Amino acid sequence: MRTRPRLAGLALALAAGASLTACTTSVTGEATLVSAAQDATPEAGGTTTDPTPAEPTEPTDEPTAPTPAEPTAESVPADTGGEDLPVPGAGVPGDAGLCQAVAGWFGYAGLALISVDETGYVDPAGVVPLLEALRDAPADHQDASAPVLAAAEDVSAATDAAIDDIESGTDVFVAFEGLTQPATDFGTACAAAGVSV
Fold it and tell me: Where is there biased composition of kind Low complexity (predicted)?
């Protein structure tokens, strides 16, 4: 009976997901306020604050190439119903950044296990991209201390094995259970470094 191990793995994943609320990632942005008079258009029955039409710009001989959109450090697209997820640990240096990154991606992957259909099936396409981000998290935080980095590398290796298992047809829950012990050991390494996750 696989219900008990699934529930144990899911409980651990939910606990890691809950730790995301404790992680703080700095996000900067700018907002522009537009008054209602500036936003109104004559077509919509409103008035504009500038009654003179804008002068047309002269065409240039050089074509302009569109600039590709690059993902920001604060969010990364994932297969989560079209939503962008905040990148855990982005911009946070040292052990704290790595601990937030691994715990955050582990939590996201665990929460993706909740997205089951009416038969209890979890689509691996919704979990694998999150596991790939978990596997790659140590590469973005090489400034962490050696013990925390070593524990993160263990999680990374276990995650890589879980991805291989999922892609070869292993049940997602069974593959995810292989991450439980490395993730627990990683949490212990973070706590020893004075970082709570």
Answer: 40-57
**pTM for the full predicted model:** 0.61
Under 8 Å between Cβ of 89 and 104: yes
Rounded to whole angstroms, how far apart are CA atoms 19 and 100?
A: 9
CA dist., res. 179 & res. 102, Å (int): 11
Cα separation, 54 vs 58, whole angstroms = 12
- The DSSP letter of residue 86 is E
Element (H, E) at 38: helix 36-39
DSSP string, 143-160: TS-HHHHHHHHHHHHHHH
CB neighbour list of residue 14: distance below 8 Å, 6 or more residues apart? 110, 111
The separation between CA 168 and the C-alpha centre of its own chain, rounded to angstroms, equals 24
- For residue 89, is it left (φ>0), alpha (ψ between -120 and 50) or beta? left
Cross-strand pairs, 77: 84
Cβ neighbors of 120 (< 8 A, separation 6 or more) are none
Cα 75 to Cα 46, 87, 108, 166, distances in angstroms: 37, 5, 13, 25
Q: What is the pLDDT of residues 24-58, one digit of tens each?
A: 333 333 333 333 333 444 444 444 444 455 555 55
The size of the chain, in residues, is 197
